[in-house]
Amino acid sequence: MTGTKIKNHERESFFSPTLFTQMFAFKEFSALRLIVGSISPCLIGLGVGISIPLQLGSFTFGAFFEGLLETFGIALWLSNLLLAFSLYFLAWFIGRIMLGVGTLPTIFLISPAIEIGAAIVPEDTPIVARLIILSISLAIFGLGILLSAAAALGPEPVSALCLAFESRYGWSISRSIFAMNLAATTLGFLLGGTIMAATVVSLFTPALFLALGLTKTRALLGVKAEN
User: Fold this and answer.
1) Is residue 3 part of a domain?
2) Can you give the pTM of this predicted structure?
3) Is residue 22 assigned to a domain?
4) Is residue 161 predicted with pLDDT exceeding 70?
5) Which residues contact 111 (CB under 8 A, 6 or more apart)?
6) pLDDT at residue 208 above 70?
7) Between 72 and 4, residue with greater pLDDT
8) Percent helix, strand, coil in the chain (nearest 5)?
9) Where are the beta strands (DSSP E) in 19-144?
10) C-alpha pair distances (Å), 224 with each of 5, 82, 146, 217
11) Is 176 part of any domain?
């Protein structure tokens, strides 16, 4: 009897929730939402990456990644990957924020998309062409944010930490996002990142896209507001 009890106890301990299973909340989603949720991080990374060689100012965290590249030689994909894991861990540690199936594409697709975007634009591109490309990259970046929010497959790293601050300290999402973007931009500037007009514009781009298209896009994907 004693041996049986020990075995049962060991089995319960083995199958008890682990840190990984507690952090992730896997649910069933439609094929369309999965496709859109997988495409959105590629668009976000592509938009950020394209902005870097334009020399008109990197987008928010893009300035931070650029600064790390300039000062320490850390590749864009690696700095983004390390930051994503760090923010997700802090979000879980501070606020027990549950991640989702969309977390994996966010972690592993944004980084290579940034690298691809940064390699697309030649450094000697004329100023007029750069302004046009900047407008396109802003649109790609904003669309990626919109589709990610609409698909609602799990928060991207910055949003996850903002949700943790809201849960633990009662900070508003807008306050947290502004503080994090400001910190990333400041650090990027100190490390040698390019801070110009495009950096300021990119702070408002996600909010504009979300305000104009979130409700309609959610309806098209069959996502309820509470998701």
Assistant:
1) no
2) 0.72
3) no
4) yes
5) 45, 76, 77, 78, 80, 81, 84
6) yes
7) 72
8) 75, 0, 20
9) none
10) 46, 32, 15, 11
11) yes
Q: Is the pLDDT of residue 101 over 70?
A: yes
Domain interval for residue 215: 29-221
- Residue recorded with tokens 């106890």: 9
AA letter at 61: F
Give the pair of three-digit tokens for residue 201.
Answer: 């514009």
Domain total in the chain: 1
| pLDDT tens, residue by residue, 137-147 | 999 998 988 88
Structure-block tokens of residue 3: 């041996």
Amino acid sitting at position 210: L
Q: Output the CA–CA distances (angstroms, integers) from residue 140 to 16, 25, 26, 136, 215, in the order listed.
A: 42, 28, 28, 6, 19
Helix (H) or strand (E) holding 107: helix 103-120
Tens of pLDDT, residues 56-93: 887 878 788 888 988 999 887 888 888 988 998 998 89
Q: Give the bridge partners for 24, in sequence order.
A: 99
**Residues in the chain, overall count:** 227
Q: At residue 189, what are phi and psi to the nearest 5 degrees?
A: -65, -45
For the chain, how big is the Rg over CA atoms in Å? 20
> Is residue 185 assigned to a domain?
yes
